[in-house]
Amino acid sequence: RNQGGEGEAMAGLVRYHLHQGTARYRQAAAGLVPAAVIILWLLPDLHLTTWRPRESILGLNLLTHNFMQGFVPGSYPLGIEASRVVVEPVDFDPAHLVKLLDRVDYEALRSASVQLGATDLPEELPVTLNPKADVAILKKIHRLLFEIRIESGNLTCPKTGRKFAITNGVPNMLVDTIEEATKTVDEAEAD
Fold this sequence. Notes:
- The chain is an alpha+beta fold.
- It has two domains: 3-46; 54-190, N-terminal domain of TfIIb, CATH 2.20.25.10.
- It has nine helices and five strands, in the order H-H-H-H-E-H-E-H-H-H-E-E-E-H.
- It has helices at 3-20, 23-29, 35-42, 54-57, 62-66, 94-100, 106-115, 135-147, 178-190; strands at 60-61, 79-87, 148-156, 163-167, 170-171.
- Strands 1, 2, 3, 4 and 5 form a five-stranded antiparallel beta sheet that branches.
- Strand 3 and strand 4 form a beta hairpin.
- The longest helix has 18 residues, at 3-20.
- The radius of gyration is 24 Å and the shape is globular.
- It comes from Lotharella globosa.
- InterPro entries: Trm112.
């Protein structure tokens, strides 16, 4: 008796029926396959709209940058020195973007976009934005907030000049020592 062949055939049958979405095979599979495999098979039921590989979710986007500041009072917005920037398309939802813009500091976004070389944003954001009528400006803002990712470079504190390295899309905002943090805060308060 070849158990390896039967096991593979059974696993294939279970995968087929799980893919088809039949509940009784999902229940039966619980006793036949490891838990990790079941979890992977159940992922379609979580209604994930898009799946992206790990590399594509990394990267500092300008929405995240818009909410960041240094540890010294008055260190907002952080300057950007990007050495590697990736542009990856993201689904455009104008209604969601209009709601989100209430929380975004437009001046900081515009400043960051200029530092990255995108100078096509208007000086001031219109007071009211209509998701259907203002599609052109919303697409520009969407591209800046969501599609541009900074993979490597530095964020610079405007108050102290301290640089925070961005490596693999993750900014390192930690201070090396307590003495350095205290010294930096004291210098900033003296100014």
